[in-house]
Amino acid sequence: MFPTLSDLIAYLFRIHISLPIQTFGFFVALSFFFTYLAFSSEFKRKEAQGLIHSFIRKEITGSPASPLELTINFLLGFVFGFKIIGALINYHLFSSDPQHYILSSAGNIYSGLIFGIGWACWAYYDRKRTQLAQPKIVEITVHPYQLMGRITFWVGTIGFIGAKLFDTIEHLNYFFADPINDLLSPIGFTYYGGFLFGMLTLFYIGIKNGMKLPQIADIGAPGMMLAYAIGRIGCQLSGDGDWGIVNSHIKPDWLHWLPNWMWSFNFPHNILNEGTYIRGCTGNYCSVLTKGVYPTSFYESVICMLMFIGMWSIRKYVTTPAFMTYLYFILMGIERFFIEYIRVTIKYNVLGMTLTQAQIISAGVFLVGVGGMMYLYIIKPYRPGKYARNISHEVINQ
3-state secondary structure string, 198-226? Predict the structure, then answer.
């Protein structure tokens, strides 16, 4: 496995570059980047079709920087100087355990103050340069795709909180044993928590800016599938614990072409340090699972990437609002429900059935998708009110 990006580069290119960047975090960042591109493309396409529209935003120009703006800029500069510059100054400490460094109080107070004051001064003089004797209100045309910076930040932030919250609920014993370390731990996130909180945040921003719910949901559906597929690549490469149960079955003859690691894998050098010590290994990640397990994160990545390609291919031919959203619910619900049978997760007894938290939510997501499709193509076309309006229209035409 490749706990850091340096490990992955060394494996692929046989060169060692000291980059204390977690592989999982790198692929999460990649998922945000490509999702940003997918969202932006859909925003532009929907606007060109006239399904969503630009809007006018009023802004005050020519005013001096407010105390709140100066404070925010100081804090941003301080954090940058304290942590980022501090990491460069204390690179050995940072590179030995980046996650611990980021979540600790370690840093450089002097560089923090210098950058904080410098950033605040820059904000003050930048505003002073354009300051008017009498500030005025101007109208700015904003296109929906220009909201992507705000959407990315807030969906990522709120989604992160949701993913952590759902994982904490699922593992309350870890939380009660050590609440602070559990909440600050760089591992332990539940997809559906991030999905739910992120989706609600996307809906809120879209509706607040004049977009209809079905359109904003359809815009996000393919991108969310892509984000999940890319994120799971990070899970597989880093060995973050999203693996399956022990695979004690012998690979069938008809799968002889399949590499052994795709059938059963031990996840050596996994970032959780699960398993037994690898003899002769040095460093922070020197464990390997004693028995091979299903590489479920790999399976999910492949399945969801194929589903994304399918959704992306048909999106231009879909004219029914909310279709893409309900399709996403159906596909995601099916995929996650069945993959859980070979994943290592906590199970609950629900109505006599043994299900995981993800399976319970997946079943609900699937039913919402099926119910939505039934409404779009069975209930909605034949609603009494619509039927009556069609009859009246025909009578008038006659």
Answer: HHHHHHHHHHHCCCCHHHHHHHHHHHHHH
Beta strands in the chain (DSSP E): 55-61, 136-142, 276-277, 287-288, 347-350, 353-356
Contact by Cβ (8 Å): 219, 39 = yes
How far is 164 from 190, CA to CA, in rounded Å?
7
139: pLDDT strictly greater than 70? yes
Q: What is the C-alpha separation between 317 and 308, in angstroms, rounded?
A: 15
Do residues 347 and 356 lie in contact, with contact meaning Cβ atoms separated by under 8 Å? yes
Which of 224, 216, 218, 199 is CA-nearest to residue 53? 216
Give the Cα separation of 224 and 229 in Å (integer). Answer: 9
Sequence spans of domains, the chain: 5-54+143-392, 58-141
Which residue is listed with tokens 């609920």? 169
Contacts for 112-115: CB closer than 8 Å, 24+ residues apart: 112/77, 112/78, 112/79, 112/81, 112/82, 112/83, 112/85, 112/86, 113/78, 113/81, 114/81, 115/77, 115/78, 115/80, 115/81, 115/82, 115/85
CA dihedral sign, ordered 243, 247, 253, 254: negative
Q: Please give the C-alpha separations between residue 101 and each of 54, 91, 106, 190, 221, in angstroms, as whole numbers.
A: 43, 10, 6, 24, 36
For the chain, how big is the Rg over CA atoms in Å? 25
In one letter, which amino acid is 333?
A: G
Q: What are phi and psi of 345, to 5 degrees?
A: -145, 165
Q: Please, what is the end-to-end C-alpha distance for the chain in angstroms?
A: 73
Least confident of 1-15, 37-51, 63-77, 161-175: 161-175
Instruction: Return the structure tokens found at 324.
Output: 């893409």
CA distances from 256 to 5, 253, 262 (A): 31, 5, 11
Q: Which two tokens stand for residue 113?
A: 């103050």
pTM assigned to the model: 0.83
CB 112 within 8 A of CB 78: yes
Which DSSP symbol is given to 50? T
Rounded CA-CA distance 245/289 in Å is: 11
Among 175-184, 258-267, 365-374, the minimum mean pLDDT is found in 175-184
Give me the residue label for tokens 């932006």: 40
Sorted by sequence, the CB contacts under 8 Å of residue 20 that are 6+ apart come out as 4, 6, 94, 95, 96, 98
